[in-house]
Each structure stands twice: as structure tokens, then as C-alpha cells.
Design a protein that fits this description.
Elements lengths: L10 H50 L12 E6 L2 E6 L11 E4 L4 E7 L4 E4 L15 E6 L5 E6 L5 E4 L1
């Protein structure tokens, strides 16, 4: 009796193809992982830049906060967060403060600002007590070690350096 052979794939052939696809998939994930991490760091740095510009604009427009008084605005930095505040100095108990937490993998590794904060002058938006040596913060992605420097100039403009 002649055996009939139907066209198709054997179990061994299917397992080999699935194995090759698994290896290719794992290689592609390994190559994309650092890009995702760098994108996360850059996105958080861009949000910080937008918040800086917003606080500077509020100071320039002499906006009145919850106190009803025209006061300067600023940003206070800690390792895992920054706080948007109103007033001549940062007060952690002020109810008007707005806290922005960084993702678990991003930290400020260096804060080179007087009192860990930057304060914008009312009306002009320039940095109060500006000194070039103390005018930057460094954000670092812990998993990759990638860092970005945010440097302030005398006029309160923040620049991002990778």
C-alpha cells in the first residue's frame, strides 16, 4: 500500500521558524529599549522647560496668585521632583505649590542653583541673584546613565543640552 503524503510543514520545521522569530524579536527589543528610555528622559526635560517658561511668563505678567498679591514665581528642585511656587522664597507648606514628580527612572543628579531653586523677577522675568556658576540642573536616566543639562541664562531662558 502506497502512503499518501500531504503538502505541509512538519513539527520540526514549525519549531525552527518559531525559534528564529523569537531570536529576532528579542534582538529588536534589546535595540529599541535604550531609545525608549532616552525618549522618556527627553520628554520629561521638555515638560520641565515648558514649566520654566510658564513660571517666567507669570512673573513677567505680574500675575496674582492665590494670595492676591503680585509676587515673583519660581521652581524648587529636589532629586525626584520639582515644585512650582509663588513668592520670594520656597515654602514647602504653601498650599499654592504645585509638585511635579519625575518618573521612577529619572532623577536630578545635580542641582547647581542657589537654595535649589530658581526665581524669576516680577515684570522682567530675569533670574533673581543670577550667577553663571550656579545656574544649571542635570537630569539623569538611571537605567541608561544618560544625562541632560538644563542651563539658565541671566534672562531666565533655559536651554537643554544632551
Amino acid at each position: 500500500m502506497k502512503r499518501l503524503r500531504l503538502p505541509g510543514f512538519t513539527y520540526v520545521e514549525l519549531m525552527m521558524v518559531l525559534g528564529i522569530m523569537g531570536v529576532l524579536l528579542s534582538l529588536s527589543i534589546l535595540s529599541v529599549g535604550p531609545l525608549i528610555a532616552k525618549t522618556t528622559l527627553k520628554a520629561q526635560a521638555q515638560v520641565l522647560l515648558a514649566d520654566i517658561a510658564s513660571m517666567q511668563l507669570k512673573s513677567m505678567r505680574r500675575e496674582q496668585g492665590g494670595t492676591g498679591q503680585t509676587t515673583p514665581y519660581g521652581i524648587y528642585f529636589e532629586a525626584g521632583k520639582y515644585v512650582l511656587f509663588q513668592g520670594a522664597t520656597y515654602s514647602p507648606t504653601d498650599q499654592e505649590n504645585y509638585e511635579v514628580l519625575l518618573s521612577d527612572d529619572v532623577r536630578f543628579s545635580s542641582i547647581l542653583l542657589p537654595n535649589s531653586s530658581i526665581l524669576f523677577e516680577r515684570g522682567s522675568g530675569t533670574v533673581v541673584g543670577y550667577a553663571a556658576a550656579t545656574s544649571s540642573v542635570i537630569m539623569t536616566q538611571l537605567s541608561t546613565g544618560t544625562s541632560m543639562v538644563i542651563q539658565f541664562n541671566q534672562n531666565g531662558i533655559a536651554e537643554l543640552f544632551e
